């Protein structure tokens, strides 16, 4: 088993498979992704600042979703 600290919250977790963060942070990332995806589905013409403001998800996290290929820019 390989244990490491979560880069987001600092909690110690068992690093297995492709997970780079703890379960809690992974779950929160998925919740944030769903918020952004659903918002963009309804309001596809909004810019990143508007999306961040309306969803409460940081611009940095939205940019990370784009870098990961989960959202189109």
What does this structure look like?
The chain is mainly α and 73 residues long. The chain is built from 3 helices and 2 strands; from the N terminus they run E-E-H-H-H. It has a two-stranded antiparallel sheet. Helix 1 packs across helix 2 (48-55). The longest helix has 20 residues, at 23-42. The radius of gyration is 14 Å and the shape is elongated.
Unreliable runs, pLDDT <50, ≥5 residues? none
Structural class: mainly alpha
Mean pLDDT: 92
- Please provide the ordered H/E string of secondary-structure elements: EEHHH
**Overall domain count:** 1
Count helical runs. Answer: 3
Shape summary: elongated
Cα(first) to Cα(last) distance is: 38 Å
The whole-angstrom Rg is 14 Å
Count every beta strand, where a strand is a DSSP E run of 2 or more residues: 2
Helix content: 40-55%
Q: Quick one: biggest sheet?
A: 2 strands, antiparallel
Instruction: Classify the beta-strand content into a percent band.
Output: 5-15%
If strands are numbered along the chain, what order do they take across the biggest sheet? 1-2
Label this structure with key terms.
73 residues, mainly alpha
A few lines on this structure:
This protein has 73 residues and is mainly α. The protein is built from 3 helices and 2 strands.
Topology overview:
Elements: E1 3-5, E2 12-14, H1 23-42, H2 48-55, H3 59-67
Antiparallel strand pairs: 1-2
Helix pairs in contact: 1-2
């Amino acid at each position: 088993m390989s244990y490491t600290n979560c880069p987001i919250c600092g909690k110690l977790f068992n690093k297995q498979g492709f997970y780079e963060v703890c379960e809690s942070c992974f779950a929160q990332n998925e919740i944030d992704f769903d918020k952004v995806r659903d918002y963009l589905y309804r309001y596809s013409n909004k810019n990143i600042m508007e999306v961040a403001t309306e969803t409460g998800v940081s611009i940095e996290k939205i940019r990370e979703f784009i870098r990961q290929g989960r959202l189109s820019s």
